[in-house]
Structure formats: structure tokens, C-alpha cells
Amino acid sequence: MGEESLRKRKGENKGREDGQNIQSHEPQTMNLQKQVGLISGICMIVGTIIGSGIFVSPKSVLANVGAVGPCLTIWAACGILATLGALCFAELGTMITKSGGEYPYLMEAFGPIPAFLFSWTSLLVTKPSSFAIICLSFAEYASAPFYPGCDPPQVVIKCLAAAAIVVITIVNSLSVKLGSYLQNFLTAAKMIIVTIIIVSGIVLLAQGKTENFQDSFKDSKISVSSIGLAFYNGLWAYDGWNQLNYITEELKNPYRNLPLSIIIGIPLVTVCYVLINISYFTVMTSTELLQSQAVAVTFGDRVLYPASWIVPLFVAFSTIGSANGTCFTAGRLVYVAGREGHMLKVLSYISVKRLTPAPAIIFYGAIAIIYIIPGDINTLINYFSFAVWIFYGLTVLALIVMRFTRKELRRPIKIPIIIPVIVTLVSILLVLAPIISAPELAYLYCVLFILSGLIVYVLFVHFKFSWPQKISKPITMHLQMFLEVVPAEEVTE
């Protein structure tokens, strides 16, 4: 009933708007539209990767390895690993041109159960916790100038983070174009602060500030566990290298733009990250960097005074840009999972007027706000990285498996098989290293949570019990009428 009335209303709206739409000859279907080009694609990758990580993680990477040399080596190695992983995703994304990131690839290679476990973990743990971490970082930097000499109160940080989540969720629910334009603007803003830090560092190096780089491997504490945890924190700063695969259906000419965006975007980020770290070490010793509350702000105070206020301002822009990119893409995963019947049907519906997956984005924002309440950034990062690398490994393994099981699929890009093999082995190491060296209950809870998805799958997806549908039907109907959303039309190719 709700659906029919909405479709009727859609017809009326269409009649009313026909006068305005005479010049548009192409019929607009009730689907997500292809509105993201090459520049927006690069901005989506660069803008989502360079978020809070490079301004928060240098401390955590250094704390795990103890010296400047290994620290810079790990930042470069993380960039190489992210590039290799992204190349694997470029092959997958051009072979299976569906939105939803790892989800359609796992579905194609291993069937519905691993795909469901991925969407279950992503929707309830990894994606919202990532969104929450970024917004907490934003709140820390945005409130820092108002509390000189002391840490901002937790209440202020958490309220500000929640407000950021609400604003980003609203923007992305209103318009794909608006979300995309905001991303382009914020990426430009963050490249300004990245350039300022790098140029300042090069000038200082030219002036002979190199004392922190002498004996750079001295006092380093290297073990399997410390390297694993340093990689976790470094790779957290690179997380986002697979973001375009979540919106493949909205990319113009994905066969060209997806690989090009990856090949331009990720090496660019790697170079920026290594140079930013070098800049930090020109003005701070290892001990000073570890004691700094916000590394980029300390750098600004020492180098850019009296204009040091621009650092927290632009870092706040940077983190908001990253959060916006995360929200823009993760909403698509909820949408695709709902479309496959793995989530509530209403989550796969599309706004009639705005053609955005509004219910999916709102659901995602609501979960992220819950994560802010207990939020401690470092614990969240380790928990997040552990879960996420299980599925990165599985997805790259899917690429290797499909080379043998799905030979008939068209592959516009075909990378040497050694690349997915290396990425799979590294992801196994990254998952096992922290468990073996420093076992914590958090990892066990994480595995149990992933496996608990099996119970949900058996009860609600496999057996399709009728009572949840009886409960969800009236809720779906009222949400449809309230949000003005309808199911997406089938794409006929």
C-alpha cells in the first residue's frame, strides 16, 4: 500500500516537473545515477585516505617501533601494500561492476555466507567504528584551540563528533552531487595543509635541521608483534584505498576511471605521508612526538607561529572530508546488502526525489553515533584493523580463486597473480601477529561477533522466519512514506 501510494505520488511529481524537464531527453530510472567522474574519483580516494590518520597515527607507529628509521620504512611499506591491494581491487572492480566493495566479490567467489558475514561485520563494526574514529579525531582537533594548554573535556569532544556525523549523514542523504562536491572541496582544503607541512619540512631540511635523522635505527624495538601493530596503525592511515569499489555503479566509465583513480591517487598519498613524517621529525625528536597530544598542531606551533591556528582548522577540514567520503561509500554497502535480501529491505530503497540511498545512510550514521559513546581511538583502531584485514585477505583470495573457477569473466585489467598472493600472505600475517604476540580478549570478541552472523544468517536469511517479516512490514511501510523512498528498479543491460 505504502509503495503504491508513493509510486502514485512520484507520478504526480513527474507530471508537475515535466515542464522543467523538457530539455532532458534521457529517461531517469529509479536507480543510483552515474555522476562520479575521474577527478571526483581521485578526490574520493585521496580525500578519504588522508583523513585523521596522518595527524594521529605517527605517534602510534613510532610508539611501536621506537625509532625514526623503522617508522619511515613502515610508512613507505604501508603505502606499497595499499597500492598492491588496490590493484587487486581494480581487477575485481572492472571484472564485477557492482557497488558494495568486497560484498559482490565474496558473493561471486564463495557464495552468500562469507558475503553476509562481511556485510554483517562491516555494517555493525568496521564501517561505523571507522566513521566514529574519524569524527572523534575531528572533534579533538576542532576543540583544541579553545582549550590551550589542556585537553578538551570528553563531553565536548563526543558532542562535537556526534554533530559532525549528523551533518554528514544529512548532506549525503540529500544529494549525490552535493556529497561529491563537498568531497572535492574538502580534498582541495586538505591538500593545502599537506602542502604547507611538506614545504615547511623541506625548507627546514635545507636549513640543516637533520639531527633527528642521525643514527635513525638506534634504540629501535623490532619484533613480529611490534611491526604488526605498527602496520595496523600505519594502514589505518591508508584505509580508504578500496573506497571507489563501493560506488562502482555510480562511476562514469568505470573500466577507465576506476584503475586510473587508483594508480594516480594511492602513490600520491604514499609520497605525501612519507614527506609529512619527515617534516614532523625535522622539528620534533621521537620523545617529543610521542608526548604530543596532536602531532600536526605541535608542528604548527613550532614552525608556523603566529599563524599556527591554520593547522587545527585545516586538519578539521581534512577529517570531515574523510568522514564524508566514508559515509558516501559505506551507505552503498548497506544499500547493496539490502538489495540482496541480507539486510532489512527498506535499507535498499532509494529516495524518490533525490535518488540517494537515504535509509542506508541514515542507518549507518545512527550506528556510528552509538560507537562514539565508549570511543577510545587507539582501542577502536586495533579492533577495526583486525576485523577489516580478515575480509581484505578473503577478498584478494577470491580474486585468486576466480582466476580458476570463473575463467569466462571479462577482465579489462589483469594483474600478475604474484600480487594477490603477496597481499593474501601479508593479510594472514597481519591477522595472526597481534593474536600470537599479545593475545587480548578484544580479538576473541571480534571473531565471536563475526561468527555470530552465522546464527542471524541461518534464522533470517536461510529459513526466512515469517514473524520478523510481520513485524518489519508495517515499519517498512511507514518509513517508506516518511522518507519518500521506493525499491530500486531492476537494471536491464
Please give the structural blueprint.
Elements: H1 2-17, H2 38-49, H3 53-65, H4 68-95, H5 102-110, H6 112-143, H7 154-174, H8 176-206, H9 224-238, H10 254-283, H11 286-291, H12 295-303, H13 310-339, E1 349-351, H14 358-372, H15 377-405, H16 418-437, H17 441-462, H18 466-483, E2 485-487
Antiparallel strand pairs: 1-2
Helix pairs in contact: 1-18, 2-8, 2-10, 2-13, 3-4, 3-9, 4-9, 4-10, 4-16, 5-6, 5-15, 6-7, 6-13, 6-14, 6-15, 6-17, 7-13, 7-14, 8-10, 8-13, 9-15, 9-16, 13-14, 15-16
Number of helices: 18
Q: Strand portion, in percent?
A: under 5%
Structural class: mainly alpha
- Strands, count: 2
What is the gyration radius calculated from CA atoms? 23 Å
Sheet with most strands: strand arrangement? 1-2
The shape is globular
What helical percentage do the residues reach? Answer: over 70%
Give the biggest sheet: 2 strands, antiparallel
Report, as a whole number of angstroms, the end-to-end distance: 29 Å
Order of helices and strands: HHHHHHHHHHHHHEHHHHHE
**Mean pLDDT over all positions:** 84
Report low-confidence residues grouped into runs of 5 or more: 1-27
Description:
The chain is mostly helical and 493 residues long. 72% of the residues lie in helices and 1% in strands. It contains 18 helices and two strands. It has helices spanning 2-17, 38-49, 53-65, 68-95, 102-110, 112-143, 154-174, 176-206, 224-238, 254-283, 286-291, 295-303, 310-339, 358-372, 377-405, 418-437, 441-462, 466-483, and strands at 349-351, 485-487. The protein has a two-stranded antiparallel sheet with strand order 1-2.
